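Reagents: none. Just compute today. D-lactate dehydratase.
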Amino acid sequence: MKAKTIVHVVTNVSHYQNSNERTGLWLSELSHAWEVFAAEGFTQIIVSPKGGEVPLEPRSLKWPNLDASGRKWLMDESKTTLLQNTLAPDVIDPALVDAIYFTGGHAVMFDFSDSVPLQRLTREVWEAGHVVASVCHGFCGLLNITLADGSFLIAGRKMTGFSWTEEKLAGVTKKVPYNAEEVAKQRGALYDKALLPFTSNVVVDGRLVTGQNPQSAKATAQMVLRALQVETKAAR
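Predicted 3D structure written out:
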């Protein structure tokens, strides 16, 4: 049996609308998932809307947000090189993808939701019967995906993502371009969040797996594994 292939989606954006206010990929949301999938021997690919270099969110590189997983990534030149040479979505054959996993960081709000190549890739992965996942702001990449019948992928499905309450507590409501939680609800998503902000929360609705915040990254990846196992059994 061939190894499963996971596509991680990361951002190309390095700042908010004010170019002096830096943002980027929240590193632990990638590093934790990468470790979980690597332990299973999966093939892993990193893509970004434009391909090429990926900036890192400065706050994700500071205590207490930079955990052992993130530090290990930063110390591994082979890993840091991956973020300098990401692929564009158009070069990925969706037929080879078993799961697509959207990472977060506020930067993704500016380049995930309107990326037609990302939408196309995700739609084809989903409609082939495979797993679609996101963590934290990564769910912005799911907001505008429509299926062959014209419906939104997230319509009528249970999901989560970085909440507006968490945006308020992070002090960035005036920096972000939209209220992602509200947009998800407008698209018909059955949005759910943890009682306490910044605590791990993962919502699984069949092949759709979503985590609420950075604290949910490892658990989200583990639930992706479970969804892949269910998918494999169903295919037998």
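Residues 204 and 210 are 6 Å apart (CA to CA).
Action item: order primers for follow-up constructs.
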